[in-house]
Write a structure and sequence with these properties.
The complex is a heterotrimer of chains A (about 100), B (about 450) and C (about 700). Chain A has about 100 residues and is mainly alpha-helical. Chain A is about 65% helix and about 10% strand. Helices cover about 25% and strands about 25% of the residues of chain C. Chain C has a five-stranded parallel β-sheet with strand order 8-7-6-16-29, covered by helices on one side. A five-stranded parallel β-sheet of chain C has the order 18-27-21-22-23. A four-stranded parallel β-sheet of chain C has the order 2-1-3-4, with helices on both faces. The two termini of chain C are about 20 Å apart. Classes of the chains: A mainly alpha (about 100), B alpha/beta (about 450), C alpha/beta (about 700).
Chain lengths: ~100, ~450, ~700
């Protein structure tokens, strides 16, 4: 349980650190924006059914390398799961992770 | 500044050599400070899959030693700490160290990882050769010691989500680097190795081809904790049906300034080939080599087993590698067996057996000589292989040149023996008695 | 989940505490989980009596894995821990420490090997999984009956025995002595220095071997903590780590230390025998020094060749005694370092012409030949100047079954001897430098110049115009006599894979065989110490990474080439590592022994003495007369320090009056019942005396 006073102090601290680190915070913000845009695309396709990395890449403008990295990241944090293997590629589907 | 830590020995580097040297000293009753610049001890070894020639899983060897270091009553562990300078102090030394801020209160954190799950940004994970992802605040890897996260302030939104979920209020954004001094009688340098950079050889793609990877990346692909959980190629996640190894890709190559043999590459390539035959039973595996150097105990038998298992060994120098639009790499080889010919072969994935270069130049912090190869000079290489040019400063593991794990561990034991003898001589202060011991006639 | 019957096990501290077992199945990073379905195992074990917690982990031995166990012990009050993982030799001790940290007696831990005994030896996943369940059920069955135990603490003798006076033995002795411990260094020959003394310059330093060796020798021979016993062998070993009672047998030297007439006495001796130091290329007397400047400088009498003619006595009556006898020396040592070294592989008669042609020599022989060669004169072999020398690698190493003839024991030397490539190139460079008109041809399979400074020897050889030819191991080079009118006595035929299998004939005046390393013949010592050999005949370490210089016998460690091929640098590193282990073991003056020793139940023992008769260990079991309730009775009494815990006594006792602590008959029976249960994991529950069912 945090008191209102503590919450206020924490908000002020965060504000101060953000101001001190404007450059890195902004860079991270744009990194996050790009990440969210890509994830949204991938999630939309996978909502239709399981897909391989090349499936996902051809349905978007993304390279297979970029898709693989995001799928790997989403898998690590339980947003995506592997469902099958077609002999060459794994198929991925949305998992019931915290943000799906 | 008066030293705030007084120990018998300071070990610089928490990889396998440093951990072993620290344990061997601590087991003899000496007080040891182990300083590691990364957030966890374990070194390069903890990132490997299985290790030759026993094929034990790497964790089975490393993690118990990490745990033993963390729990040893005679070892003080400083992770995420840089050594910034060493000064002589009588016959001993004083080291300046900087403990970098984790932005975590170590006394409070329980390692529950709720912060990591709450963090919204993913970044390429250096522990997984950037193939996997890691959050802005994270425990570096699952078996890390200490089990404590690091907040990467350079890659942080300062959104406060982690602060909100932490059940013990352990996240502290006000932390600053802390300067400390360690006084030690003796120092063991165990600063380890890096690998020759992937972009060093333009004829092998200069690091630009996604499916031309280094041996260390293949270690991550083979490790059960690896980024994909399977062996997949990085360009598109395809399971490779044909994998090639290019030996001496960064060693025995004067154009790279690495004229020496890196000593481990033959064995790791053969080991990976064996592990791949197990993981991908249908895959073709080819090793292009000049000389196979399987010199250690049980290594030659290991090599012969790999041949018997169907790994193809091609005696030939790989002249160049190029890729097509689907990133399939093709190697051009001058074949040394049979008729003279140059052949081109396409593979799904090519592994460069990159060599070992020094990770760190101790010269930066102290006047310990390094040789032309960049590794620490050992002036009495035969009789006292751990001695450096400074009395009381010893070297262990691959800081003294390319070395495999077995040899690093033995050398760490040797460095511990040297350091112990040096400490003992300082403690007793009595001049060594001279006089001929009676020979029994 | 079925209703569980909780077994209550009487304990010394709290007799009513119910048994609560925590069970952990390790993935071993895939080593186990690739074959055994670990989750299924954990699930099945959950249903067993007394099991409160059953979990899996990628690696239980990691700090995170160990933390889970500690937390479970504290949270659930667990008092027995069972882990299915690798072999107990690897991590049983790791987990005992974990359990101890959580406040539990470390011997309430049961290790089950499901890697070496299961996942590594089976392919069928279902069967391997069932086997894992059965093995772990047996572990749980045993764990229920475990009692808290305490290790036996014994005083450790602060002295070590080092066997072998070569460079590794010297290095180990010096490092143990520097830590304040006493050392008895024994050498079977009359002089120290071993094989290294026979070398000229050594890589990678380029310095004379003797100069490097002498530095170490002078430190060893002047160190007050080191006693040197020459011409001495170990003949008896009793006891255990910390307290070995050993007997040394030292042969008389025949010449007293400080003998003043060495040169004259040697000159007076009429006996000439081939000098083994120079591989028989020179002769020496029956009273001799190993080499000029050897340690000790006092000569020794070669009893096998001395005719007792007395010529040396005529030089000096003082200091020479021609009585060949032995003295036995009894010592107590806490640890033993085995540094018995190697011998060069001896080629068979006719192997590459060895023994048939005087011009075919081994590399160690060539090194002595070159040392004897006068500076500035051309190299001569068999009275002919050498123009072409051919060096052949891998003789006696990397042998292939079916191609090479096996040794007497039926085995070929499959291993690489590690040292010979660089040593050969080092000598090739010396040949080219000292005898610039001499052509050197180097015939190899793979050049293995792996170490720091080794590749430089290879590169330098190329620069020095050493000509390399590469042969395939299945097509060995041949050495034959040249036709009468040829300029050179020999021809070497080789198929060269560097020039696309060109067939070449090289006229040769000298053929040098780069022979590999074989362990010195030490079968008596192996039997005495009960240490193990590998399939390569070298002594075997416990584990190359976890315990690289220790043998399976506590207190017996390895240094140098007794363990496997090594160069000087590697031998010294291994010897120092061995010294660190000895210092760690004996430095505190105490050693701990496992408590798995025989224990007599005096209420059941009738003093029949069958246990004492069958016991193979001296003074481990004695039958003593004692007073019980005023009656004189005979009972077996165990001296735990002498008991090896082998269990032979348990098997012969007619009254079940003797047991091995930690491995009791009750525990074995419970394990057998569990393994043999009809349904895996559903064993017959053991019935405990006095415990409610």
């Amino acid at each position: 349980m945090t008191t209102r006073e503590e919450r206020k102090q924490r908000a002020e601290l965060l504000k101060r650190v953000r101001e001190e680190r404007t450059n890195t915070v902004q860079a991270t913000q744009s990194h996050l924006k790009e990440q969210q845009a890509i994830r949204k695309q991938l999630q939309e396709i996978m909502r239709e059914g399981p897909a391989t990395v090349p499936d996902l890449a051809s349905a978007t403008d993304l390279s297979t390398q970029t898709v693989l990295w995001h799928v790997t990241a989403m898998k690590k944090y339980d947003l995506v799961k592997e469902v099958s293997f077609d002999g060459e590629y794994y198929q991925y589907a949305l998992a019931e992770g915290p943000n799906s | 500044m008066t030293p705030d830590m007084q120990v018998d020995a300071m070990v610089v580097g928490g990889g396998i050599a440093g951990m072993q040297a620290a344990l061997d000293l601590a087991d003899q009753g000496y007080q040891v400070a182990l300083v590691e610049r990364e957030a966890s001890i374990g070194g390069t070894m903890i990132s490997l899959s299985k290790v030759f020639p026993t094929l034990d899983c790497c964790s089975c060897i490393t993690t118990p030693k990490m745990s033993a270091v963390a729990h040893h009553e005679n070892i003080q562990l400083l992770t995420y700490t840089n050594v910034t300078g060493i000064h002589q102090n009588g016959n001993g030394y004083v080291a300046d160290v900087t403990v970098k801020p984790r932005y975590i209160d170590e006394a409070l954190c329980t390692g529950c990882r709720q912060c990591e799950y709450a963090c919204p940004v993913d970044f390429p994970n250096p522990f997984d050769a950037n193939l996997g992802a890691v959050r802005g605040i994270r425990i570096p890897f699952s078996t890390a010691v200490p089990q404590m996260p690091v907040l990467d302030i350079e890659n942080c939104l300062v959104c406060g989500k982690c602060l909100n979920v932490c059940p013990v209020d352990a996240i502290d954004l006000t932390q600053v680097p802390e300067q400390r001094q360690i006084q030690a009688e003796s120092i063991v340098l165990a600063t380890g190795f890096s690998t020759t950079p992937m972009d060093a050889k333009a004829e092998y793609g200069g690091g630009q081809y996604p499916n031309v990877i280094s041996g260390l990346v293949m270690e991550r692909l083979l490790a059960p904790t690896g980024p994909y959980g399977h062996v997949l190629r990085p360009s598109d996640g395809k399971e490779p049906a044909s994998i090639a190894y290019v030996q001496c890709a960064g060693s025995r190559d004067e154009t790279l300034g690495v004229p020496y043999c890196s000593r481990i590459c033959c064995m790791y390539a053969i080991k990976q080939a064996m592990l791949l035959s197990g993981a991908l039973p249908m895959a073709d595996i080819t090793i292009y080599y000049m000389d196979i150097r399987t010199f250690g105990k049980g290594y030659e038998q290991f090599y012969q087993n790999a041949r018997a298992m169907g790994v193809e060994f091609v005696k030939g120098k790989v002249a160049s590698i190029h890729e097509d639009e689907d990133h399939n790499p093709t190697v051009r080889v001058e074949n040394m067996d049979g008729e003279p010919q140059i052949v081109e072969r396409e593979h799904d994935l090519v592994v460069l057996s990159v060599g070992m270069i020094p990770r760190y130049d101790p010269h930066l912090i102290y006047d310990v000589a390094v040789a032309t190869d960049g590794f620490v000079t050992t002036p009495s290489a035969n009789i006292s292989p751990c001695e450096t040019t400074r009395p009381g400063v010893f070297v262990a593991g691959s800081a003294a040149g390319p070395m495999d794990i077995v040899d690093s561990i033995v050398m760490a034991g040797a460095a511990a023996a040297e350091a112990a003898a040096y400490i003992e001589a300082q403690h007793t202060m009595a001049p060594v008695a001279v006089g001929l011991e009676a020979v029994h006639a | 989940m079925p209703e569980k019957d909780q077994i209550k096990k009487p304990q010394t501290d709290s007799p009513e505490e119910p048994v609560k077992v925590g069970v952990y199945t390790c993935y071993c990073g895939g080593n186990i989980s690739d074959t055994v379905q670990c989750e299924a195992v954990a699930q099945q074990l959950k249903g067993l009596s007394n099991v409160m917690v059953s979990r899996t982990n990628m690696s239980m031995c990691s700090d995170a894995g160990q933390a889970i166990i500690e937390a479970d012990i504290r949270e659930h009050g667990l008092n027995r821990i069972v882990i299915g993982a690798c072999a107990p030799s690897l991590h049983e001790k790791t987990f005992r420490k974990t359990v101890e940290r959580a406040g539990l007696n470390p011997y309430l831990y049961q290790h089950v090997g499901i890697r070496e005994q299961d996942s590594w030896v089976h392919h069928n996943q279902d069967h391997a999984t069932e086997k894992a369940v059965r093995l772990m059920s047996a572990g749980i069955a045993k764990a229920r009956l475990l009692d808290p135990l305490a290790p036996i603490e014994l005083r450790a003798e602060k002295q070590a025995l080092v066997i072998g006076g070569g460079v590794a033995g010297l290095r180990a002795a010096y490092d143990i002595a520097r830590r304040g411990l006493k050392v008895a260094l024994i050498e079977k020959e009359p002089f120290l220095g071993g094989r290294m003394a026979q070398l000229e310059t050594v890589f990678p330093t380029g310095r004379p071997a003797r100069e490097e060796l002498d530095g170490l020798l002078s430190r060893v021979t002047t160190h007050p903590n080191i006693s040197i016993y020459l011409q001495t062998e170990l003949v008896e070993v009793k006891g255990y780590v910390g307290d070995f009672q050993i007997m040394l047998r030292q042969r008389s030297r025949g010449v007293a230390e400080g003998f003043a007439h060495t040169k004259a006495a040697i000159a007076a001796c009429p006996v000439e025998v081939p000098d083994e130091f120079n591989f028989g290329r020179t002769t020496r007397k029956a009273i001799y020094q190993r080499y000029d400047g050897c340690y000790p400088s006092t000569p020794a009498i070669d009893w096998e060749h001395c005719t007792r003619c007395g010529e040396c006595l005529k030089v000096s009556e003082q200091g020479i005694n021609l009585e060949d006898n032995y003295v036995d020396v009894a010592l107590q040592v806490g640890a033993i370092v085995v540094a018995t070294g190697f011998r060069p592989y001896e080629p068979r008669h006719g192997e590459f012409g060895y023994g048939e042609f005087a011009e075919v020599v081994t590399l160690p022989e060539l090194i002595r030949l070159m040392a004897l060669q006068e500076e500035g004169q051309p190299l001569t072999v068999n009275n002919r100047p050498v123009r072409n020398a051919v060096l052949v690698h891998c003789v006696g190493s990397r042998q292939i079954d079916g191609i090479h003839e096996p040794q007497d024991d039926g085995l070929v030397n499959e291993y690489c001897s590690r040292v010979c490539c660089t040593a050969t190139l080092h000598v090739a460079n010396e040949l080219r430098t000292r005898f610039p008109t001499l052509n050197v041809f180097d015939l190899y399979e793979d050049i293995r110049t792996y170490g720091r400074g080794h590749e430089e020897e290879y590169r330098h050889a190329g620069e020095q115009m050493v000509r390399f030819l590469r042969f395939d191991p299945e097509e060995m080079p041949e050495v034959v006599a040249a036709p009468e009118d040829d300029t050179s006595p020999l021809l070497v035929r080789v198929t060269d894979h560097l020039t696309w299998e060109e067939q070449l004939e090289i006229p040769a005046d000298l053929v040098v065989l780069a022979v590999g390393m074989m362990p010195n013949p030490i079968s008596d010592l192996i039997e005495l110490l009960k240490v193990a050999q590998g399939t390569d005949r070298f002594l075997l370490e416990v584990h190359p990474k976890l315990r690289p210089v220790e043998t399976a016998v506590p207190g017996v460690v390895l240094a140098g080439t007794a363990q496997g091929p090594m160069n000087i640098q590697e031998s010294c590193a291994a010897a120092e590592a061995a010294a660190a282990k000895v210092a760690g073991l004996l430095g505190q003056g105490l050693v701990e022994l496992e408590p798995f020793k025989a224990l007599v139940n005096p209420d059941r023992c009738d003093g029949s003495g069958e246990c004492a008769q069958v016991c193979a260990y001296e003074d481990a079991i004695t039958i003593e007369t004692m007073l019980v309730d005023g009656h004189e009775v005979r009972r077996a009494v165990v001296t735990p320090a002498n008991c090896a815990g082998c269990g032979a006594c348990v098997a012969v006792c007619p009254n079940r009056a003797i047991d091995i602590q930690g491995w009791t008959l009750d525990q074995y029976e419970a394990m057998v019942d569990a393994i043999a249960a009809d349904i895996p994991g559903r064993m017959v529950e053991p019935v405990l005396e006095g415990a409610p069912a």
